[in-house]
Amino acid sequence: MTESPGRVEAFSDGVFAIAITLLILEIKLPHVEHGLWAGLLALWPSYIAFLMSFFVILIMWVNHHELLRMVQRVNYPFLFANGFLLLTVTVVPFPTAVLAANLATPDAKAAVAFYCATFVAQALVWNLLFATMVRGGLLRADVTAETISNVRRTYYVGVLVYMLATALAFVRPALGLVLNASLWVVWIRLGYRSESSVSSLRSES
Amino acid sequence: MTESPGRVEAFSDGVFAIAITLLILEIKLPHVEHGLWAGLLALWPSYIAFLMSFFVILIMWVNHHELLRMVQRVNYPFLFANGFLLLTVTVVPFPTAVLAANLATPDAKAAVAFYCATFVAQALVWNLLFATMVRGGLLRADVTAETISNVRRTYYVGVLVYMLATALAFVRPALGLVLNASLWVVWIRLGYRSESSVSSLRSES
Amino acid sequence: MTESPGRVEAFSDGVFAIAITLLILEIKLPHVEHGLWAGLLALWPSYIAFLMSFFVILIMWVNHHELLRMVQRVNYPFLFANGFLLLTVTVVPFPTAVLAANLATPDAKAAVAFYCATFVAQALVWNLLFATMVRGGLLRADVTAETISNVRRTYYVGVLVYMLATALAFVRPALGLVLNASLWVVWIRLGYRSESSVSSLRSES
Amino acid sequence: MTESPGRVEAFSDGVFAIAITLLILEIKLPHVEHGLWAGLLALWPSYIAFLMSFFVILIMWVNHHELLRMVQRVNYPFLFANGFLLLTVTVVPFPTAVLAANLATPDAKAAVAFYCATFVAQALVWNLLFATMVRGGLLRADVTAETISNVRRTYYVGVLVYMLATALAFVRPALGLVLNASLWVVWIRLGYRSESSVSSLRSES
Fold it and tell me: Which of A142, C48, D88, D147 has the fewest CB atoms nearer than 10 Å to its CB?
């Protein structure tokens, strides 16, 4: 299959764009019995859940973008590995809603743990997707072994940190969320690095 | 009409991407009176319904992709046959929600039968779409009679198996769902085959 | 402004695709106190409303497609006239939900009249959009005066028939809906004709 | 990073298209105890909120379009500044729903102030995005210093006027809304001007 990744990219972008925009539907109307401002303030768990999921999906979109730039063609296993990744993206509004509804209740620990656990699953699928790319020989010739091992290492770390965040959530839910969010920095730095390695190779060629 | 299938493809991709992402809205917030974990577990019918519909739409998207690659141009009947197909795609969240709401109730048989029946309708429309392509002379010159009869046969089988799954649902709903899901393998294999025949022809030309 | 209509087309396609896919969210879960099948049957007003709106949006998408093929460039007034058209497209799920909720009630007359009236507004905006195209000199050189007057006449007829359907709804709501749906044939035939005139001109050049 | 803005544009367009189409979901079914027409009339706050947000998003889409036409390449800070802008776009359905639910209640002042305040945040992010473009050297060579200072000035004015509208809302909510809407004219005129300066430069080159 000598197909270019164009249509997969367009479809994936569509799913990312829709998932990130649907998040707002999870914020319900504020109760107004104590005034609208009090009602709006009481929605703070919804705002936290919304912002966390918005930035995760945004960063994942950027990374997906970077990853597809390393690809010169796609095959069937890639289509389905990518489909699994999109599954973990479309799912995000659900744990987000669960987090928003329970963050200010005695169920906060379970809610944060569930929220973090969905990202463990997602981090595993990023590993699967990258393995499919490497094994299928889909990478461009100018992607170095160093870039590959760099990406792979970061994806392993991602799984571990999300597992740690999940475990931490059972004890200190707030810290679990903070650890979860701290991974944004890792993903952003990954993007920078893989980008610069591709760019430098490109400018050489 | 000498139009290329580009814009139909983009519009269809949009509908597939939105339908697959809207599915998550059907999973409602868990009840927490027995704790959040118990509430999350009790949502198992929603997870099954979500996963089944997610993978069906994903596979249909891949197959739609393959089908449009056989096309060299589109005409008006094709636009409307494709519109009927999109109708059966946008509809999916509704039987999915019905399935999720009733799978763990005495109405499970009816719910699974209704769910499977919507795919009978969809399989009929795939046949209609392909017939429109063949009759309208829209196929590329390098699509062999063998590929055509292969696709046609698989689409006939699809209708029959979905009808069987619908009938089975009235007796053993769980088996009906399993038979329904077993068609994924058929659709994936169809994709592989039509792809390889197109590819081999392409490399010859 | 020498811009090509590409990005307007992509944005409009996105809005059409989303609006047509959101329609299904208006079909609520069936009540099951008399069994699921009875509950599914009782949703017939929702199915009628869904199907009517689905086909209208589908046909409007095809026509929008045809209309933009007549355009060689876009200007600012066109962007906003097109924005008004998209307004009348994104609005459709609301009268659809109103129709579905009231078609089997004593409010059926008002519901059908309201539903038809939104299409009067939409038909007026199609006229506005086309006038913006003609006055702004946005049409391609090969679009004949005959095609222009043909499109214009059909759009006028559209306004009149939708007004008639609205009036009829106050007396016989079912007939109002049928008249409303009968316009699909007019729009489809308009598409055929404007297409063939463009095609024939293209093959000459 | 020598990437063209194509994929950012496509992703942003997707988010704009979805956000603008989701707005209609905020209009709930009318109550019919006093008849459907009375119920439809009683929804006037929803119609005002819907129309205001629809036109704001439409105009922002047009402006985003214009802004990206000034860009010759994108970098990482731009991706995230643009992400912040998309955050303020996806958020719009929430203040819209709050406005619709409270405009006809004693909480109208708070609702309008909250609605206007979200656009203060958005106007700040437009400033951030433009600063990122200028500082990163992302602008095309033919964008003049005059155009830059023109855009910058308009964005400053936007922040100030939205702040004024927010303050005004605490006293006269209706006037706050009118002032908010009056900014449409400013944004539209900005679009016209930056467009004509780009066009004139283009025709010279």
Answer: A142
Contacts of B111 (CB under 8 A, 6+ apart): B98, B99, B101, B102, B103, B105, B173, C36
> Which comes out higher in pLDDT, residue D198 or C163?
C163
Nearest residue, CB atoms, D199 vs list C2, C90, C98: C2
* Candidates C13, C35, C58; nearest CB to B83: C58
Q: Nearest 5°: CA angle at D123, between D121 and D126? A: 115
Two tokens, residue D8: 């950012």
User: What is the pLDDT averaged over residues A2-22?
Assistant: 85
Q: Which of C105-109, C123-127, D10-14 has the lowest mean pLDDT?
A: D10-14
Could you tell me what percentage of chain A is helix, strand and coil, using 3-state DSSP and rounding each to the nearest 5? Answer: 80, 0, 20
| Chain C, nearest residue to B14 by Cα | C17
Residue spans of alpha helices (H) in chain B: 6-22, 36-41, 44-69, 76-90, 93-102, 108-135, 145-169, 173-204
A128, with CB counted inside 10 A (0-12, 13-18, 19+), is: middle
Q: Does residue A91 have a pLDDT over 90?
A: yes
B94 — pLDDT class (breaks 50, 70, 90): very high
- From A86, A91, A107, residue closest to B36, measured CB to CB: A107
Q: What angle do CA C50, C51, C54 make, to 5 degrees?
A: 85
Quick: pLDDT tens for B53-89: 999 999 999 889 888 889 988 888 898 899 999 999 9
Amino acid letter, residue D49? A
C43-56 burial string, b = 16+ CB within 10 Å, else e?
Answer: bebbebbbebbbbb
A-proximal residues of D, 101-120, CB under 8 Å: 101-102, 105, 107, 110-111, 114
Within an 8 Å CB–CB cutoff, is residue D195 touching chain C? Answer: yes
Convert the pLDDT of each residue in B138-154 to its tens digit.
999 989 898 899 889 88
Highest mean pLDDT among A74-78, B178-182, D162-166: D162-166
User: What residues of D are in contact with residue C94 (Cβ under 8 Å)?
Assistant: 24, 27
The dihedrals phi and psi of B71, each to the nearest 5 degrees, come to -95, 140
Residue count of chain A, please give it: 205
Q: Print the SS3 string covering A35-62.
A: CHHHHHHCCHHHHHHHHHHHHHHHHHHH
Q: What whole-number distance in Å separates Cα of residue D140 and Cα of residue A132? A: 39
Average confidence (pLDDT) over B162-191: 88
**What percentage of residues in chain C have a pLDDT greater than 70?**
90
